[in-house]
Amino acid sequence: MPDYVISQDTLPRDGRFGSGPSKVPTSRLEALAATGSALMGTSHRQAPVKALVRRVREGLGELLALPDGHEVVLGNGGTHAFWDAAVLALVESRAQHVVLGEFGGKLADAVAAAPFLAEPSVRRAEPGGLVLPEAEEGVDTYAYVHNETSTGVMSSVGRVGDGGALVLVDATSGAGGLPVDVAETDAYYFAPQKCFASDGGLWVAVLSPAAIERAERLSRERWVPPSVDLVQAIDNSRKDQTLNTPAVATLFLLAEQVDWMLAEGGLEAMVRRTTASSGVVHDWVARTPYATPFVADPEARSLVVTTVDLEGVDAAEVAAVLRANGVVDVEPYRKLGRNQLRIATFPAVETSDVEALTACIDDVVGHLTRHRS
Description:
alpha/beta, 2 domains, 3-stranded antiparallel beta sheet, 7-stranded mixed beta sheet, Aspartate Aminotransferase, domain 1, single chain, 10 helices
């Protein structure tokens, strides 16, 4: 069945809809190639790469409307590395975690495994559902996700309780595509391979003065491996560098995407784009008899990762035919085990391509149905 050929008139101009790694616009790759030997293969301690880091930090500060005292901090290793840094430097004693899916549970598991921390409080939703953090006595850190990549559930961002505890928001797939007031957070952290149309291997966090103070204090009280030492990441970022050699191509692509976002109108413009693109999927589902939204609550349906259950047709077979025609990475998150499509509507994805994707799905499903009858 993957031999079925979709008409060129139906196909999207760009068929990449992955939820991470995400679509990297071809123009950004061409811009990277045009740098020649100016960046790649040069020292990350010298002016060209330090200027690139500064460009990223300043651009993100403008995009996210950085509050006074908050700092953009970069570190090697991606979000998984930041989770380890947070366990060691941000959770003082007891944390509350909201788990909406696979990724929201990662930090909760890391905190639970730490022998020097109390057993965390965990508020867990059924897959596709949403729960919110809730003020709780004895909790010094609240941790939740802005967007659960595995399920397509989106959460609001705000402080919890009286404001004395730190608020850590995992925005790995939400930052740059969802509305946010980072003043409501103490660590709004993310990776560049989602909304920022770059590659992996880097984490970025917007840290509040309270988060920085706690990290500095706990680093004096606990042994912290240098590779996940948040204080070292802060100190190096202030010098426009990372502790260890960064992936320079990742930094460049991130900088290019941030510049494009700002030129297009900033975060508000990006949210308009993701709202329009995700709206195409949601509207298509509403009029399609074989499709249903995985996330039942319309207010919790993500603007950047849309999840659609299929009925009466094999989603894996649909995805295989699409892939054979150059429309890729619409498979569901593997551990969910659902008959589902997952479609990224990050800012770099054109709304017209999302419209074409829905037409392609209808075309493939129609062909499969005729073939079976």
